[in-house]
Structures are given as structure tokens and as C-alpha cells.
Amino acid sequence: MHDRTLTEISQALDAGEISSRELTQDLLGRIDRLDGTLNSFVSVTADQALEAAEAADQARARGEAGRLTGVPLALKDIFCTQGVKTSCGSKMLDNFVAPYDATVVEKLKAAGTVSLGKTNMDEFAMGSSNESSFYGPVKNPWDLDAVPGGSSGGSAAAVAAGLVPAALGTDTGGSIRQPAAFCGITGLKPTYGRVSRYGMIAYASSLDQGGPMARSAEDCAHLLNVIAGHDVRDSTSVARGVPDYTEELSAPLSGLKIGLPKEYFGDGLDAGVNQAIGEAIKVYESLGASVREVSLPHTAYAIPAYYVIAPAEASSNLSRYDGVRFGHRCDNPEDLIDLYKRSRAEGFGEEVKRRILIGTHTLSEGFFDAYYKKAQQVRRLIRQDFLDAFEEVDVLMGPAAPTPAFDLGAQKDPVSMYLQDIYTIAVNLAGIPGISVPAGFAGKRPVGLQVLGTHFAETRLLNVAHQFQQATDWHLKRPEMSEENS
Asked: Is 90 a catalytic residue?
């Protein structure tokens, strides 16, 4: 059962092939046997999961089951979950037990899903490899010497290894799409404001967005149906109706206009990744789509703009962690200033400290106009690039990452690590949706095809991704996670 998609599991539950409790016990056992190797979970909530599974089976017996009732999943450890440790992968929050549920957690509970636990992540979502976590790095199920990507690497690895059929992640600069690509699963970053950020611990408030990670576009559509929608508790949530994202999955692609940004196929793109993406484009042409080259002329400025804006917002958001109200508190502080200094120095890791320092500098007097304001002006130009491109084409396609998953410990230079997000960061700056779908392999490591659409075009993206998955079997490939590895 662990090899099945979320959609297939839902159908099996409907048909009475298995109960939610049986399925939950099976997956909890699989986590116990295999996750010692992967390190994809921070917390496994077995008791709560079995209780929720029992309630789901009772609801099904009463004829009250919905599409996701009794379906197991996992939550990135950035979503507040009542009564469960919510750490953000940081020592700073290692002792924090959330007193309430994030909106998306509320919605998933109301839909009858069963959360098996909280997944590992780069500390405060700052990273592209899942190596900055206080709880240690996550390993890629396809190759235990490789990273799973980040910051939602724990969610991606757990899904790829068959520990859960789906998980929630967050995407600030590619943190759903890049690990989805590295782990050979499907990951959707919705339009900014489509999914509530209430209860999702903030990294960069104008960029963060939660989204589904699963084996197929169809699975992601079912999850987005549940988690999308306006939330009065989130001032950045968009008051817009939620369509049924599954209705158009099977629409034909004849006449679809695909744009290939020339900036995404230049220097730095791995030859194996380039070949896999090229083969994927040919599949779309065989399905009736037309392809043309387009330009996103300000792409080169996306990374410098992002690494001004995101750290600036992070320095503001992370100022609340002061050792007073919640989180890590140093022992025996001499005075208030000592409390602040040592609590933050002890609680935050190296990458988080680096970004706080960058952000504080760019927001300081004398530098705000030169850096932060200028970066926001560049952001507007990047957004306009996408809007101009979508006047000509329906979707944009290209690689989700310039290389397949790299080896653990290989990226020692922070700038080299930042460049891993070169194809994903601009999407967050523009606020548009994007999806990564499995599209082959470079060597033995997966490659992700990134499909981008204009604002609130998730229905189109899911349709485009689903049709590709009907014509190929890359999303059905599974890593050989034998229990002898554990």
C-alpha cells in the first residue's frame, strides 16, 4: 500500500480494501524501520495518528467520509500543530509546543486526514539542501549520499521513500519545487495568498507560501482543494473563490502554448538535466502543444534581489525570538541584554545568523534605499517579465534546478548554495504559481520539470502536469528503500 498514490489510497479506503487504522499502523511501522536512515521526521505522532485514524474509520462507517478521510500525511515542522512540538528545524524552538493549529492544519483535520508527524527541514526554512537543520541532515532516498533539497527536504524524502503518500511543505524561494525535483515527486507552490499563512512560522512574509507535495499532480489537486481559500486571520490571504482543482485535470492539451525562457537554458545547466527537460518538452509537443522561446530579461537579478528582500524580512520576523516569551533561553543571564545576546547566539544556527545580519544591514539607516528599496524595484521588473511572457504563452517550462541532487557536504560556499535556486526564486518574487513534476533522471538522480503559470492559474498547471503524467511513468518510479538499509 505504501507504493500507492494518495488518490489510489483514497479509493482503497472507499472500497474497504483497508481501514485507515491498518494503513496508519503500516506506515508508522515503515517510518520506525526506515527513517533512522533518512532522518526525514523530527516528530512522529503515533498516538494522535491512530486516534485520528480510528475517528476516520468511524466517520466512514457512518457514511460521512470525504475524499481525504483517513488518508495519512505529514506536515513540515513549520506549521503550528496544537499539542505537538513545532521546531522549524531550530534549537531555538526545540522546546516549543504549539498552543494552536495553523489554518491549513485545521482544514486538513476537518477533512479527516491523519497526520503521522512533523518533517525535518532547513532551520527556519533557510537552505536548499536540508543540511542546516538542528536535527541533522536528511538523506535522499534515491541516493543516501545525496541531499534531498530544501528547505522542505524532509517532506520530499518522506513521500519519495513511501513513508507517507503526501506531505505539506512551504516555498519561499523554491523550497517545495527544488526538493520535489531532487526526490522525484510532484510539488506545487500556489499563487501567493492562495493558501493561508496563519500559523505557518514566518521566514519572509511577502514570499512564503504553503503547498502540497505528493506523487502526482492529481494528488496535489485533491490536497489543494482542502487547503486553499481565504482566511480572515491572514491579511495576505486573497479573498477569492476556490475552484475544484480536479475538474480540468483531463482536459486535452491541444493548442497549449508553451514558452521556454532562454535564460533557463544557458551556462550552468547540467547536461543530463537539459536532456531530460528536452525529452519532456517533446512529450508535450506530441500531446498537441506548441513551443516557442521567450525571454525573462531580468532573471539574472532575481538571486541578488531575493537575498536582500528575504533576509530583511527574516531579520524582522526572527527578532521575536529573544529568550523572553518562548523558545530557547540561555542559562543564568547576567541582565536583559545578556539574555538577548546569548539566547539568540545559542538558539540560531550559522545560516540563520548570516541572513539575520544581512537583513539587519540592508534595513539600517543609510542602506535602506540603496539595497532594500532597490531590490523591491527589481522585484517589480521581474514580475512584469512574467506578465509580459504570459501575454504570448499559456505556461512557461524549464528545469526546476540547474543540477540533480548534489552530494551531502558538497556545497560549502553559501553563494554556491544560493545559486541552486536560480530557476525558482523569481517565481516567489513575482507571486505566481509553479509546479515541479518528475521528468527523468540525470545519472541515477531524479530531474524535475518546472511548469509556471500566471497568478491563480493552478487549475491550468495541474492539468498540464497531469496530462504529462498520463503520458509518462516517471512519477511512478520508486527508490529502492530496502529495510536492510535502515
From this structure: no
